[in-house]
Amino acid sequence: MSSEIDLDHVAIASESGWDNVDRYAGDLGGRWAGGGLSLGFHFCQITFANDVRIEILEPRDVHEFDFLR
Fold it and tell me: What is the value of pTM for the model shown?
């Protein structure tokens, strides 16, 4: 049995998600990989070398969906 772990992505929740997009895609050289809306949050993924991905989550409609807070 292998002890190797296959990490899909890391998620970061932030009240100001677009500030993080600027940071990871702009300052650190990542590429926009996609995004959209889901129940309670906006999301996007930024891809780096070797398919390393960061997912950025921004809360929305927190009066109904407050799990990110």
Answer: 0.78
